[in-house]
Design goal:
The chain is α/β, with parallel strands linked by helices. 39% of the residues lie in helices and 15% in strands. It folds into two domains: 112 residues, Aspartate Aminotransferase, domain 1 (Alpha-Beta Complex); 203 residues, Type I PLP-dependent aspartate aminotransferase-like (Major domain) (Aspartate Aminotransferase, domain 2, 3-Layer(aba) Sandwich), CATH 3.40.640. The chain has a seven-stranded mixed beta sheet with strand order 2-8-7-6-5-3-4, with helices on both faces. The longest helix has 22 residues. The relative contact order is 0.18.
């Protein structure tokens, strides 16, 4: 399997003075969710998720509970989708991309073509693809597609489509692709980003009715259970989802404003996600700069090469201090980076 550059930097970033690799807001705690850990039974949970959780998720998407498959995080949800929908033809993904969305289909034997967002629908409509893979909003680019043309192009050419919507809860008024999909489509999501609950390993996959049976079989073969604590935390979180979303959006607004005030060596775009994909036009390749930032300045950011790019960095906006951004700007300037 291909190198997972992003996670290598995430691991190293934990030891850095300034870790700017994050993609979430600060995590909620069990106390925030009103959970007494002493009362949680840590046994097996239903393979496809508890009735209560599947019902709550189905209400979010306007589908039947049977169309919801609870998973160990959105990563497992995406893997279930790949194993269910990848056919003999190649797969199509938007560039820039989150590495596992490219690497896993590639490891399963599919040719994966990556195209910029503005060419995605046209490439899909050209035919020949067994599956389309779209992070919506894009990680790291933050672009948000109207799902309608993607669904239409996939239907016209017989392609299956996965929408990874893990960052959609940050978007005010964001609407899921599942509102328009009728067949051969799946949507993955979790609470790892909007609530910072990555440690509970709880996500879900929402599938069109034609794929329920096969996706359920894949999930049960991959992992016949979920986490009891994760399911309880997810239920509590979804019961107050509006408050959770407003907290996350406030944190990101403040973080983005601080990044824009304090970093002039990069072009910092407007956006609503817990990271910014900041580009530059003059300077060494981003992976080279990222290595120097870590070794020489004790600052960790994610290089554009982690996402199929070259002259950009993904910089966290979900909680870093103003001092971290100021240190980044000084270090980038010393490395010859210009916007």
């Amino acid at each position: 399997m291909r190198r997972y550059t992003l996670v290598e930097f995430l691991v190293r970033g934990r030891e850095a003075r300034y870790d700017l690799t994050g993609s979430t807001v600060p995590p909620l705690t069990l106390r925030d969710l009103g959970i007494d850990a002493d009362e949680v039974e840590l046994g097996y949970s239903p393979s496809l998720g508890s009735d209560a959780l599947r019902s709550m998720v189905s209400d979010l998407y306007g589908v039947e509970p049977s169309q919801v498959i609870v998973t160990m995080g959105a990563s497992e949800a995406n893997n279930v989708a790949f194993l269910t929908m990848l056919g003999e033809g190649p797969a199509l993904i938007e560039r820039p991309y989150f590495e596992p969305l490219f690497n896993v289909p590639d490891a399963l034997g599919a040719r994966v073509d990556a195209v910029p967002g503005e060419r995605f629908v046209g490439a899909l409509a050209g035919g020949g693809y067994s599956m389309a893979i779209l992070a919506n909003p894009n990680n790291p680019g933050e672009g948000l597609h109207d799902p309608g043309p993607v669904i239409e192009a996939a239907a016209d050419t017989g392609a299956a489509v996965l929408f990874d919507e893990i960052y959609l809860p940050f978007v005010e008024g964001g609407r899921s692709a599942m509102e328009q999909a009728s067949e051969r489509a799946m949507v993955s999501c979790s609470l790892s980003k909007v609530a910072g609950l990555g440690g509970i390993r709880l996500g879900w996959l929402v599938v069109t009715p034609d794929l329920v049976a096969e996706a359920s079989r894949v999930k049960m073969n991959l992992n016949p259970t979920n986490t009891a604590l994760g399911e309880m935390a997810a239920v509590r979180c979804l019961e107050d989802l509006g408050r959770v979303q407003e907290r996350a959006r406030r944190i990101v607004r403040e973080g983005r404003a601080s990044l824009m005030r304090n970093v002039s060596a990069l072009t910092v775009p407007e956006g609503v996600l817990p990271f910014a994909y900041c580009r530059y036009t003059d300077g060494p390749p981003s992976l080279e700069v990222a290595e120097r930032l870590l070794t020489d300045h004790d600052i960790c950011v994610l290089a554009g090469e982690c996402f199929g790019g070259a002259t950009a960095f993904r910089v966290a906006t979900g909680g870093p201090s103003e001092g971290a951004y100021k240190a980044l700007d000084i270090a980038l300037t010393e490395q010859g980076v210009r916007p």
